[in-house]
Amino acid sequence: MQIPLLLEQLLNGLQFGFMLFLMASGLTLIFGVMGLINLAHGSLYMVGAFACAAVAAATGSFWLGLVASLAGAAAAGALVEVLVIRRLYGRDHLDQVLATFALILIFSEGTRWLFGSFPLYLDIPPLLGGALTLPGSAPYPIYRLAIIGAGLLVALGLYLLISRTRLGMRIRAGEADREMIAALGIDIRTLYTIVFALGAALAGMAGALVGALQSVQVGMGEPVLILAFVVIVIGGIGSIRGALFGALLVGVVDTTGRLLLPLALSSFISPSAAASTGAALASMLIYVLMALILALRPRGLFPAAAG
Amino acid sequence: MKQMMAAALVALCAGTAGAFAEPVKIGMITTLSGGGAGLGVDTRDAFLLAIKKSGNKDIEVVVEDDAQKPELAVQIADKMIQSEKVDLLTGIIWSNLAMAVVPSVTAQDVIYLSPNAGPSPLAGAGCNANYFNVAYQNDNFHEAMGQYANGDYKKTFILAPNYPAGKDSLTGFKRYYKGELAGEVYTQLGQTDYAAEIAQIRASGADSVFFFLPGGMGIAFTKQYGQSGVTIPLMGPGFSFSQDVLGAIGDAAVGVRNSASWSKDLDNEANKTFVADFQAEYGRLPSIYAAQGYDTANLILSAVAKASVTDKEAFRAALKEADFPSVRGKFKFNTNNHPIQDIYVREVVKEGDVITNKIIATAFTDHSDAYAKDCKM
Q1: Is B73 within a domain?
Q2: Which residues span the membrane (chain A) (predicted)?
Q3: What is the per-residue pLDDT across B246-294, written as a single tens digit (0 to 9) for each?
Q4: I need a surface site. Which of A100, A119, A214, B220 has the fewest CB within 10 A?
């Protein structure tokens, strides 16, 4: 096992973690502020990816596509909040899960109706193509470094928004006591729509950035959604800081587990059996991690200040 | 959860009826929603195209969506057999769905024709006189790539998802590949990020990579591989480079070699007509799933012209003759009702703006499968 390969895999783990953070930050923001379990968050991720692919195909510019993904997902989020989600805040979590599950089906079939059943093409922008040479002479794709950068920027932006702005102050107040801030004359309905649209825009941006690496197709959001839920449960539901550390932890543990478990097993069973057993164990690893963390810290690593 | 997707279709063209002018009802269960819908849509469209072109007005096709869920496929099959009284069933894309549906269907003495999935249990000890596979046995394409790799490569890195068809794939490849393995990796089913595996491939000193990652997984892997700067040649079964995904992969796929029993440039009359008609009708190039759906329909049409569907014995015999113009050129059934056919190696090329496949070699002539000897029919 060479050191450069291990370093590269750590970087891959960080990059995967930041990808998860983009998705998990919106999910945890919406849960923290409104107490809403939004299963349709994966659909907003898909909307972002499709908006980016469609606009990039029409204009030839990934950057216009990225803008479209933010705008499209935010608009879809705001629309859904006003039409559906608004009626669910007072309901229990089961009703929220049912209604947002219905939204998944509506978004999936709606997207198929608009774009057809075949995956769309979306490539990384030429500006971020190519690879940098890491120490140890391994080339590393610039686009993946850019995802790490985007994740850092989003983390910083959310921190500043929540701790330094008036909107952030209201969001924190809304988390703490929603009746009180309504009584103080703040339009809580508009605040909720803004927060939901912001969370949707983050999901849409994640969809566009990741769509360039993966496949833009119907149903692409659901596997990521499951991981994003693992992340926010590990990090502490409602906590942005928890989402960041949870995402990085899941990313690094998953990536290095996939590499190291088969290697470790191959020292005492046949390579072929080690490959399949190691892969099976590696896929369980993050859930084992989640169970361990919940056993030690039932409210996650960084429990939100007020529940 | 999913309601009936499409109602009946009766071919409208005027034309000749078969020798037996009795109605034949075909039930098609296929995947029309969710991430795998592209495959089912191609199968359905080509199947209906063949029925329409035949002008046979006595054939009715009932299509329903299984949403790629085994339990739903079983429910639809029961409903089609018991309340809609279909004579034949077809359409399933995925091996896990086929394993859930086919044994109970054939046990009820209903004939099932597979347009895609070919899991090994149904080719060996679990074969059945009522089960006809018009596509391939699952291992076939992977075996062909293993055979082909012997010519060029000595140290291949192999990769597949950790589920039964993934293991069958690598088993099939290794059955014919004689070189050394640089590594053998199983990924998670549905995995979307392959940076870790790509780094392993680069560090392994491999001279080639064989991978089987169907659907979105293959799109993600191939794009990320192209972006990573690794230049070790890729190869895989035709599923990873079928027409339905090539558009989404883009230029990263160009030059990749893959194995299949069909390609759009295969030189025979039936294929030329099929490719032209499919493009005219649907405005896109057909995939291998479309080719297999089209052959399935034409096989049924050939049997309907020879025997009555109510006389099961005669109808099975008529199917087994495989007396139809296959778009694959030559086609016949082995003792286990699975194909004996040629398997080609294709290369992904760019024709103008369209990315598609071109045949560059023949890996196997008259290839059957490794399980036929276990079939006692």
Answers
A1: yes
A2: 16-37, 44-64, 70-89, 101-122, 142-162, 190-213, 225-252, 273-296
A3: 988 888 899 999 999 999 999 999 999 999 999 999 999 999 999 999 9
A4: A100
Residues B367 and B238 occupy one common structural domain: yes
B64 min Cα distance to partner chain A (Å): 15
- Assembly ipTM: 0.81
Q: What per-residue confidence (pLDDT) applies to A279? A: 83
Q: Are A276 and A36 in contact (CB under 8 A)?
A: no
Alpha carbons A178 and A81: distance in angstroms, whole number: 17
| Top-ranked range on mean pLDDT: pick from A91-95, B9-13, B190-194, B282-286 | B282-286
Task: Report which residue type is found at A219.
Answer: G
* Selected residue of B72, B157, B193, B219 to mutate for chain A interface (largest A Cβ count, 10 A): B193
Q: Which spans in A84-141 are helix H?
A: 93-115
Helix locations, A84-215, DSSP H: 93-115, 142-164, 166-176, 178-183, 188-211
The minimal CB distance from A119 to the residues B184, B203, B245 is found for B245
- Cβ distance B6 to B40 under 8 Å? no
Q: Is residue B3 part of a domain?
A: no
d(CA A266, CA B33): 40
* Domains and their CATH numbers in chain A: 8-125+138-296 (1.10.3470)
Does residue B338 sit within a domain? Answer: no
Only one residue has tokens 């729509």, namely A193
Q: Are residues B201 and B348 in the same domain?
A: yes
Does residue A306 surpass a pLDDT of 50? no
Return the sign of the alpha-carbon dihedral for residues B226, B231, B232, B236: positive
Q: Which residue of B has its CA nearest to A279?
A: B186
Pair (B91, B196) in one structural domain: no
Phi-psi region of B321 (alpha: psi -120 to 50; beta: other; left: phi over 0): alpha
Tell me whether residues B216 and A259 touch, CB distance under 8 A: no
> Are residues B88 and B25 part of one domain?
yes
CATH number at residue B162: 3.40.50.2300
What part of A 51-110 touches B (C-beta under 8 Å)? 105, 108-109
- Please list every residue in chain A whose beta carbon sits closer than 8 Å to the beta carbon of residue B197: 258
Query: What's the rounded Cα separation, in Å, for the pair B56 and B13?
Result: 8
DSSP-based three-state secondary structure for B191: coil
Pairing verdict, β B155-161 and B208-211: parallel
Number of domains in chain B: 2
The amino acid occupying position B151 is G
Residues 6+ apart with CB under 8 A from B263: B344, B346, B357, B358, B359
> A interface mutation test: which of B169, B186, B204, B245 has the most A CBs within 10 A?
B186
User: Do B358 and B213 reside in the same domain of the chain?
Assistant: yes
- B57 lies in the same domain as B84: yes
For residue A160, give the 3-state DSSP assignment.
helix
**Partners of residue B344 on adjacent β-strands:** B260, B362
Angle formed at CA B100 by CA B98 and CA B239, multiple of 5 degrees:
30
Amino acid occupying residue B349? V
**B103 and B161 share one domain:** no
B360 & B246 share domain = yes
Query: Residue A42 and residue A44: Cα distance in Å, rounded?
Result: 5
Q: Identify the helix (H) or strand (E) that includes residue B328.
A: none
The boundaries of the domain holding residue B46 are 8-136+265-333
Q: Mean pLDDT throughout A158-176? A: 87
